[in-house]
Design goal:
This protein has 391 residues and is an alpha/beta fold. It has 13 helices and eight strands.
């Protein structure tokens, strides 16, 4: 993309730590705003943690409206309905609470509300990056999962419902004004969601580390994030109230965003986006099921980086050859997935082989495929999808 050096891809401001969410009102006052719209998803809007934030803000004198109609893998239709809601209420600041879906949706709603048009016009593939200006409203992101890192990222991923593909809406201006990263907000995540989002984090970190586009500070952050996630993901899944594990995972998630802002991603995401678009796979699950296969495919051109991943995951590689160490990394990722209950085969979730050619075609035009370390042909991608099938 050639953006490094032209824009600031680093976060603007972060409040990190247990209890950080209690400072939300003070931060909104600091920004001199009054009328708040909270964007969240259909499940989150029913939870106490959202209502507590609303009550807290109202007690502090803010006007608060809630938009909670965002579903998994947000679509262009959801975004446009959200913008209509914004037009009906007074709003001078947006606060997104939840996982990647409401945070990505909040970014996209902000664009269309302040710039006009439809979100499809801001797709990176049609030059959308040049259309996003500083007219955006202040935007605060409060993650309640440890996976997407949308709270610090330059991206919003939205499904184009007509074309059945994921649009990458990207601009450094989409980095939230403030990320409030509070591990206490993640302790109610059930084990399955913790596993899926945790493997999303691992995929971000690994793909950024082996990416064709290398920015050394981002690569260093990625490797450190792999260490944290490898140490704490199992604990976060099986001991959900372990605040140290939750803190490690939400930090690792954020580090994934910081690293892929610069280095970008790769073939795992290009392929996973199609599983979500065609079959509504949770994004983290799709990444997790494809990650070891793509690591194995990429390994010949990034042996050293893959060996580094093994060491970061705790493997003693001292007496191993480079290839042995790289293979150990793939084995460790597979073991981690098994340990936390990640299913192995995509066809057990309804994937039909006759739709693979269409998914391959979409994967080939996904922007993130351009930074995969190994160039993939249509036949290569087809073989990887088939390798992810049991029958």
């Amino acid at each position: 993309m050639g953006l490094t050096g032209l824009f600031n891809h680093w976060p603007k401001a972060i409040l990190f730590g247990a209890g950080a969410v209690k400072q939300l009102g003070a931060e909104i006052k600091r920004l001199e705003k009054k009328n708040v719209v909270i964007v969240t998803d259909e499940g989150m809007k029913k939870l106490d943690i959202v209502q507590k934030v609303i009550d807290q803000l109202r007690e502090e004198g803010f006007t608060v409206d809630l938009y909670g109609e965002i579903g998994p893998n947000p679509t262009d239709e959801m975004i446009h309905r959200g913008v209509e809601f914004l037009k009906k209420v007074s709003c001078d600041i947006l606060v997104a609470m939840g996982g990647g879906s409401p945070i990505d949706a909040g970014k996209a709603m902000n664009i269309v509300y302040t710039h006009g048009g439809i979100i499809n016009e801001y797709d990176l593939a049609v030059g959308g990056i040049g259309k996003i200006t500083d007219k955006l409203l202040p935007f605060i992101a409060i993650p309640t999962t440890s996976g997407t890192a949308s709270e610090v990222s330059i991206a919003s991923v939205i499904t184009d419902t007509k074309r059945k593909l994921k649009m990458s809406v990207i601009s450094p201006r989409l980095v939230p004004t403030l990320a409030i990263v509070d591990p206490e907000m993640t302790v109610t995540m059930p084990p399955k969601l913790t596993a899926y989002t945790g493997m999303d984090t691992m995929t971000h970190l690994i793909e950024a580390y082996v990416s064709k586009h290398q920015f050394a500070p981002a690569s260093g952050i990625a490797l450190q994030g792999i260490k944290l996630a490898s140490k704490s993901l199992r604990l976060a899944v099986f001991e959900g109230k372990n605040i140290e594990a939750r803190e490690d995972m939400i930090m690792a998630s954020m580090m994934g965003g910081l690293s892929f802002n610069h280095n970008m991603l790769g073939l795992v995401h290009a392929m996973a986006h199609q599983l979500s678009s065609f079959y509504h796979f949770p994004h983290g699950l799709a990444n997790a099921m494809l990650l070891p296969l793509v690591m194995k495919y990429n390994m010949p051109v990034c042996l050293k980086q893959t060996a580094d991943i093994a060491e970061a995951m705790g493997v003693n590689i001292k007496n191993m050859s480079l290839r042995e160490a790289a293979e150990a990394a793939i084995n460790e990722v597979e073991k981690l997935s098994r340990d936390i209950g990640i299913p192995k085969y995509i066809d057990e979730f309804g994937v039909m082989k006759d739709q693979i050619p269409e998914m391959v075609a979409n994967a080939l035009i996904d922007p993130v495929i351009g930074t995969n370390p190994r160039t993939a042909s249509a036949e290569d991608i087809k073989d990887l999808y088939l390798a992810a099938c049991k029958n």
